[in-house]
């Protein structure tokens, strides 16, 4: 049997509920881009927003109708049941859903008696009428309707009979699915399973599940609902959402496909999930969590030296799945716990062939240990490690310039204004260049001066940007004084790399990390070192 | 019945397994600080590391024996069973555990036949003998022993009989608990529950659970194990750990206490979890996730709108728990971080009596919110917060000196030597003093110059020492540029205090934090401000 998107609905609400996340602000263009990524991932349903409720979503639906050619997904509009005491056909917001052009609509409805009373301020019977009329109206107009039963689990605890009645009324009026929403996110898997099981028996409705991560169980709650019989799963990319976020749809999908052997995406689509998760993070401009299950950059990263030797024998000894199944990669982290095996694996990953040269590998291991004992760390500084590798492999560290002298000054004057300047003398391609720069700190000024000086010889440095900068004071070991460790992240718009510098002096440590950063940036662009 | 830490073991492994996280690198001092926070949180057991396996952990255990006075927790050393084919008493690493001074030891043992063969490279029988001998040896020497059954769930799938035999052998030799480890993190709650249930029936051992988050289910897996009868739970603060991290201990604790009504921490300790989670994040220098369950700054944040009016009627309509139960706050706005209650509690803790003055408390709350929106944080800067409190309570910020002007220069000459100098002009007790200093970096030189200048007037400054210094770059909000946050820890030999400075320029931010540090140091010594 081949994939059938109707068997288990993979329903994405990144564009609506995900957008409720603090700090997340999507333009209409962003939403179109994300919708295309979602369609590439192969989700069955894309909830686009609430047309009529805010102008941005109205515009998005109008544009989507024209521009969005979906290969796989069904486009869904979200909205509420009609207001109390009006006719469905006269309800303006319901009209906007009807006119949105979306083939399907998800209607949110109250299923918790207390919310009907206190938030909706109407009677329990009128709420049922609102659900019945609204579902029927949209069905009559030719749209497919899903019901989001808001606060369902809390409502079920408080008044089971009423919560069940909400589901029955919606199904009788023609809804396809009733999605049970843990709106406040306080549930645990055992209760979710019990409730889904009971509702299924009591209503025979097709059930869906919509979870939030307030107990850290959004994924497990969704899995528990599916095990209990739900066949429609709502979630968001990267678990975006209000408070602690919604259920992370990619993790659920990977668990269903890889652990439970259920086909819920088109064939091979899961392998796109790493790429798509990161591409969407670029759109939202929210740094992806390195620890995200399956798609985090650390999800298949190994640190301990003990593990590394066994991983060489068989990666499955220390990995729950093949990282390629979600488009991710195994990564070895170089740390003071590292031995020969992890250095070898790491070098392969970086594309530097050590050719099994035991003496060379031994030299690299010794050098890493010696440098780590002085405060270096390479697990967060791949680029500095690669420079070290190339130096040991070729006998010469890749170099495009030599810094001869530098001077930074920072001054606060009596008027409380702060001025920072740097002067750098550098030799490159046989020329000595002296240059200066200003900045919002000595390191920034140094960086500006250095790049300004090298700009004529290496114009590609203009595209580089310092994207992160971290400083740590390390206590002295074995009687030496404290040292400063600086980690720098640099980007050229296509990718990022990390470098490290260690010195007693923070500016000198920064200069070291910046020198590595620019050197590696030039290597990346294909420049041959001097 | 009151709290009994033996009823359900809350076992923290932040300092050992948590430290395996990519990018996490803890100094000995960091580990001591985190251990104190863990003890404040009230966990029953703190796993400190692997003494004997690396010099840093050996040093930590030696220092912990002298310096760590734990109120509640038992200190635990981690290590492996003896090597194949040696006597337990002759095994060097086992000897280091025995001599660590820790009252309890957790021994990791292979329970998956394939790992015995491929990673340990010994026979199944010898592995059992290694477990038996090692547990017995440490028990005979008077230590309590826990067993970490590595790869237990994978091992159980492959060879149930052998996995069970590992548990039986350990218990017969005198282990207290066998913790079943989902080392590769691939399990889901249903399988965890089934296996724990079966092992309990087959061995009658006291069982523990150790989960990783590779399927996004670490918390739910731990909860499932407890429901199936496990009474010892391993996890880490903020879910730190290799790959996708370990189970987040605070989320598990909150779920057990608030949802399952099990008392697993001393009374009121859970209310400290927000503070401790964030204080530890400052030590690790890893930005805390705003979406972290219970303790994330977004965990109880609501976007204004529909929810707002209902929340005014009754917050429980839109919150699964009272945020105060974990020391967190409900927030309606992005910058709305501090609540009145926490400001009042914090002030009491610092010994500043706000006398229930609502207007004064409101002023402090507003000021904290405004400053946090600019990048300040007071979680890890008590001393700066106390200066702010005193300023608002008395109308004048405590002050012993005014810095009029400063200048720092750092230079690297052609001979590769680095010289840093600072010049500071300061007014104190009506005198203008200009002074200079050198140092191993501009901040150190500034500190030296300032203290040298003030030395005649305040000789007690000579006893102060800068003991930690951290820098973080914060991305700009609302279109402003990036700012730098500096946290400084200062000691006078009797205690430490922490101060914060925020500025575009790292030297200016440092100057701000240092000014607070010296001011607070003089207050501590009983000096009356000008």
Characterization of the model:
The structure is a homodimer of 530-residue chains. The first copy, chain A, has three domains: 9-284, TIM Barrel, CATH 3.20.20; 301-366, no CATH class; 402-524, Double Stranded RNA Binding Domain (2-Layer Sandwich), CATH 3.30.160. Helices cover 39% and strands 19% of the residues of chain A. The first copy, chain A, is built from 17 helices and 16 strands. Chain A starts with 8 loop residues before the first strand and ends in a 6-residue tail after the last helix. The interface between A and B is large, with 105 and 100 residues. Strand 11 (402-412) of chain A pairs antiparallel with strand 9 (402-412) of chain B. Chains A, B: GO terms for molecular function: (R)-citramalate synthase activity; 2-isopropylmalate synthase activity. Chains A, B: Residues 8-271 form the Pyruvate carboxyltransferase domain.
Topology (SSEs and partners):
Two copies of one chain form a homodimer.
Chain A: E1 9-12, H1 28-41, E2 45-47, H2 55-67, E3 74-80, H3 92-98, E4 104-110, H4 113-120, H5 124-140, E5 144-150, H6 152-158, H7 160-172, E6 177-181, H8 189-203, E7 207-210, H9 218-227, E8 232-235, H10 249-259, H11 273-284, E9 301-302, H12 305-313, E10 331-332, H13 340-350, H14 358-373, H15 382-394, E11 402-412, E12 418-428, E13 431-438, H16 442-454, E14 465-474, E15 483-491, E16 496-503, H17 506-524
Parallel strand pairs in A: 1-2, 1-8, 2-3, 3-4, 4-5, 5-6, 6-7, 7-8, 9-10
Antiparallel strand pairs in A: 11-12, 12-13, 14-15, 15-16
Helix pairs in contact in A: 1-2, 1-11, 5-7, 6-7, 8-9, 9-10, 12-13, 16-17
